[in-house]
Design brief:
Elements (H helix, E strand, L loop, with lengths): L28 H13 L5 H16 L7 E4 L4 H12 L4 E7 L5 H14 L3 E5 L2 H14 L6 H18 L3 E3 L4 H4 L14 H11 L13 H6 L5 E3 L9 H12 L12 H15 L4 H10 L5 H8 L6 H15 L3 H9 L12 H11 L1 H13 L2
Parallel strand pairs: 1-2, 1-4, 2-3, 4-5
Helix pairs in contact: 3-4, 3-10, 5-8, 11-14, 16-17
Length: 380
């Protein structure tokens, strides 16, 4: 018998995410996690300002003999754009990096160009070899798994790591933040982008034999522990950050344009989140994104529920994106819609690092693993 459908009474998460649980008041586990994380690591007036001042001073001191104080990865989206603005305002010498996976929207490219030009920051672009990207992305389309964005997300991480090594930076500024993403854990059926073995297993089964030697796969160590001597800093957690406020500043200062939805600065991600996941997995990722805004006080629960009644993307945009993606990946519409209609493929149908990681975590314990990770990230 199917379990009863339920929507959180505080945010808009629901039982389309099978791992969600509810307390006696109908409040979901995402909300409780958000509260815990925000209390532990979120912005605290007076305290966070002091933490920010100390952090910037340490970054500048430790990087005084280097050409850059930090690396900022730019997607053209809200968080990374505001982080660039804030880092510049704080007087940091910035290595600005954009990773071009081949799926940029024109809006994203305009946003990046305008900001870098006005702030007089040199932009370094890592442009992925398109034939390689196409073949890997195509294999994922055929795989039937929940997370088709892995080829992009893995690339973004590995390319940023490579640029950090190339230029010898000691700090990577991360746009992830608790305020607008603290409840935005990945859909529980969505496998991590870190798993190189899983990617290669999918390509072995669904690829066309094209060499992936130009794709910068993460090593096992880098995937789970990061780069030795390089510290990731969540700068936005040290300020009173809001998506609405950030967009107002960016629009006023740079003519920055909104692109219609979280991560919709990528054509592929826009289609993946607005069409593929709802059609095949019956999960609307907007629930997670909007829930964060509700919990951060940027919109009411009622406003979020009203937004969810509207399509994530206009039908004409979905049609245009689908045609563009299928044409570029050499898939027919008939073939693709058979995949959409087929049952989802579980991630464990492919070889994975997850069992190894779970074994390590079980053997040494989660707390010790977190300490090891922190030690490696901050090693000098």
């Amino acid at each position: 018998m199917a379990e009863k459908y339920q929507v959180c009474t505080r945010c808009v998460m629901d039982t389309t995410d099978p791992e969600l649980t509810f307390d006696e008041h109908g409040v979901c586990s995402r909300c409780r996690h958000y509260d815990q994380v925000r209390a532990l690591r979120g912005y605290r007036k007076g305290v966070s300002e002091q933490e920010l001042e100390r952090t910037i001073a340490v970054m500048k001191e430790n990087s005084r003999d280097l050409p850059y104080d930090c690396l900022v990865g730019l997607s053209g989206g809200v968080d990374s754009a505001y982080m660039l603005y804030l880092a510049h305002k704080l007087g940091l010498r910035i290595l600005a990096v954009h990773v071009d996976s081949g799926w940029n929207t024109p809006v994203a490219e305009r946003n990046i160009q305008r900001m870098c030009e006005k702030l007089n920051i040199e932009l370094h672009v890592w442009k992925m070899d398109w034939p390689t990207m196409k073949e890997l992305q195509r294999a994922y389309m055929l795989s039937g798994v929940a997370n088709l964005d892995v080829p992009q997300d893995h690339l973004f991480c590995s390319a940023v790591f490579a640029m950090a090594r190339k230029f010898g930076v000691k700090y990577i500024l991360n746009g992830s933040n608790i305020a607008t993403e603290g409840a935005s854990a990945p859909f529980s059926q969505q496998h991590t982008y870190r798993d190189t073995w899983h990617m290669k297993s999918i390509y072995k089964k669904h690829g066309r034999g094209y060499s992936l030697e130009k794709y910068p796969f993460l090593s096992l160590r880098d995937s789970w522990l990061g780069i030795k001597g390089v510290t990731k800093i969540n700068l936005l957690d040290m300020v009173d950050y809001s998506k609405k406020g950030a967009m107002e500043v960016l629009s006023r200062e740079f003519g920055w344009e909104y692109y219609g939805g979280k991560h919709f600065e990528s054509v592929f991600t826009r289609y993946f989140q607005s069409t593929y996941q709802p059609a095949k997995f019956h999960f609307d990722k907007r629930r997670s994104h909007l829930s964060c805004l509700v919990l951060n006080g940027e919109m009411t629960r009622e406003e979020a529920l009203e937004e969810l009644k509207q399509p994530a993307c206009p039908p004409e945009q979905v049609e245009a994106d689908e045609k563009d993606i299928l044409d570029r990946l050499e898939l027919s519409r008939e073939e693709w819609h058979k995949i959409l209609a087929a049952p989802p493929t579980p991630d464990d149908a492919y070889f994975s690092q997850q069992k190894l990681f779970n074994l390590v975590q079980k053997t040494i314990g989660r707390e010790r693993l977190d300490k090891l990770k922190k030690k490696i990230y901050t090693a000098k």
